[in-house]
Design goal:
Elements (H helix, E strand, L loop, with lengths): L1 H21 L3 H11 L4 H19 L3 H10 L3 H13 L2 H28 L7 H4 L6 H20 L3 H12 L2 H12 L3 H28 L14 H44 L5 E11 L2 E10 L5 H15 L3 E9 L3 H10 L12 H23 L3 E9 L6 E8 L6 H15 L3 E8 L15 H7 L12 E8 L3 H14 L7 E6 L7 E6 L5
Parallel strand pairs: 2-3, 5-6, 7-8
Antiparallel strand pairs: 1-2, 4-5, 7-9
Helix pairs in contact: 2-5, 3-4, 3-6, 3-10, 4-9, 5-6, 5-11, 6-10, 8-9, 8-11, 10-11, 11-12, 12-13, 15-16
Keywords: Membrane, Transmembrane, Transmembrane helix
Protein name: TIGR00341 family protein
InterPro entries: DUF389 (IPR005240)
């Protein structure tokens, strides 16, 4: 039964496909493709607009804006046209489509790189980073999208809607914008990752739509000149597809391994650190360090986790991951409700007069609160140093008074102070009022005997690499006595060459007289007076 049934259904399928192929207006489709393959000025205008919109959406981390760029991108047209020209073996049409595609790709990448160079936003966002590690699933999505685009072109049914959906599914414009972003920020690996995703989509669409066109009856007989056989052309595309599948499979395998390791680490940490009324895991992350794995976790706990317990966690993680593990545990001491109840009971219950506590007892109780407040401020104001943090109670019903010293060369604005107060209020659960004093960000610059920077000054200057929004958002004021002009110039060169500080952002001020230290002030442009 099976032996006779299979040929029967195979014959039915061939007959059905032949009937559908006869319904396709082959020469009309080919003429339409040949007439539209050369890009017009409208095509290139729409392409540039799509590239700019996609780049802005990527820099702003806006999914909606990126999708809008996909919708207006005309790049899917030449790609589908290239596939059809491969199918019918019209090499002249192939050369025209690839000339249009080459111009389109180069123009998109160049425009994206130029916009990136002049844009104040240069930090890689999640939308950018999600398009630099393509995997084999991206190839499958592009292949299915190519099938949809080819069927839409052959049948002309809801072609506009279908082609729009294909453009969103394959997203050929955003990867090219990522490639331009990588070139504009001098990050070649980001550019390579974005272009690899585009190339993956491109080859998969060509191959899958080529197969659909062949099934729909497009043959070399539809062109006058004899060309290479369809089998040869299909073999070339399949070879290219196989070659690019190797790194994509490796990337997918790496991503799956990373996700499995992340879940395995989370299970172990939660099973060991989530203890009712004792401790609670608040976050964790991990990274590869050679052959070992570094796991960094933070936990709220009523008492410090002992070292043997930490070693037991490391051993369990190492056993699960199959490699050595080093655990760095950040512990925040908190008080449980039962502990607070014990304190109240010891004081004689509700309404009892509180016992007078010694300064040492008060310091011991306030210490964890002050440490937590300083930790929150440090995280919010990184890389600037926070010190001399104090906490005081503002009386019954009043806010918690937080005072700290910030190593920064410009004052804390009212709106920034308000944001800090709200962040602390959210973290502590009580109203907070913040007062921040500022002191110079950097100590006087120290030079060695040969006029170069001393190691301690080099170490301090490294924090300039982590300035919010990058060095381009700041002005660097180098000051010192007139006799130290050589050292001032050396410091300016060091900032530009070693720390990527824009040369135009560095100003040098010399003072009359002898003596005095060389100093560096770092001020945001919107705070320069």
């Amino acid at each position: 039964m099976a032996g006779t049934g299979t040929p029967f259904y195979r014959g039915r399928m061939k007959a059905y496909l032949a009937m559908k192929a006869d319904m396709v207006q082959h020469r009309e489709v080919i003429r339409e493709v040949a007439a539209s393959v050369d890009g017009s000025w409208v095509y290139y205008v729409m392409l540039i607009l799509a590239a700019v919109i996609a780049l802005l959406g990527l820099l702003l981390n806006s999914v909606a804006v990126v999708i809008g760029a996909m919708l207006i991108s005309p790049l899917m047209g030449p790609i589908i046209s290239a596939s059809l020209s491969f199918t019918i073996g019209d090499l002249a049409l192939v050369r025209r489509t690839f000339r249009t595609l080459g111009t389109s790709i180069a123009l998109t990448v160049a425009v994206s790189a130029l916009i990136t160079l002049v844009s104040p936003l240069k930090e890689p966002t999640a939308e950018i980073l999600s398009r630099v590690r393509p995997n084999i699933l991206d190839l499958f999505i592009a292949a299915l999208s190519g099938v949809a685009g080819a069927v839409a072109l052959c049948t002309k049914r809801n072609y506009l809607i279908t082609s729009t959906g294909v453009a969103v599914a394959t997203a050929v414009i955003p990867p090219l914008s990522v490639a331009g972003y990588g070139l504009g920020t001098w990050q070649p690996m980001l550019a390579l990752g974005g272009f690899l995703l585009f190339f993956t989509n491109f080859v998969a669409i060509i191959l899958s739509s080529d197969i659909v066109f062949f099934i729909m009856g497009f043959r070399t007989s539809h062109v006058e000149a004899s060309q290479h056989s369809h089998r040869t052309r299909l073999a070339v595309i399949t070879t290219v597809l196989t070659l690019i599948s190797v790194p994509l499979v490796y990337t997918l395998s790496s991503d799956v391994t990373r996700i499995k390791n992340e879940k395995r680490i989370g299970r172990v940490l939660k099973s060991r650190l989530d203890r009712e009324l004792a401790s609670r895991l608040t976050g964790y992350r991990f990274r590869q360090e050679g052959k070992a794995v570094l796991v960094m976790a933070s936990v709220n706990t009523v008492r410090f986790v002992p070292k043997p317990a930490q070693q037991a966690i490391e051993q369990e993680l190492a056993q699960g991951l199959g490699r050595p593990v080093r655990l760095e545990l950040e512990q925040v001491i908190v008080a449980s409700e039962s502990q607070l109840g014990d304190v109240t009971a010891k004081r004689g219950g509700v309404g009892a007069q509180p016992a007078k506590e010694s300064p040492a007892e008060l310091a011991a109780k306030m210490g964890p609160l002050v440490a937590r407040v300083e930790q929150e401020l440090t995280g919010a104001l990184v890389p600037f140093e926070v010190s001399h943090t104090t906490v005081a109670f503002g009386g019954e019903g009043g806010p918690l008074l937080v005072s700290a010293t910030l190593g920064r060369d410009y004052e804390v604005r009212d709106d920034e102070r308000l944001l800090l107060s709200r962040q602390l209020q959210q973290a502590l659960g009580v109203p907070v009022r913040v007062e921040i004093r500022v002191t110079p960000m950097l100590p006087p610059i120290v030079f060695a005997g040969d006029g170069s920077l001393a190691p301690e000054s080099k170490s301090k200057l490294e924090m300039l690499r982590h300035l919010p929004e990058g060095p381009s958002a700041f002005r660097f004021e180098v000051a010192g006595p007139k006799e130290s002009g050589g050292r001032l110039r050396f410091l300016g060169r060091y900032l530009a060459q070693q720390l990527d500080v824009p040369a135009q952002a560095v100003t040098t001020v010399t003072s009359r007289g002898r003596g005095g230290a060389v100093t560096l002030r770092v001020v945001r442009y919107d705070n320069v007076r």
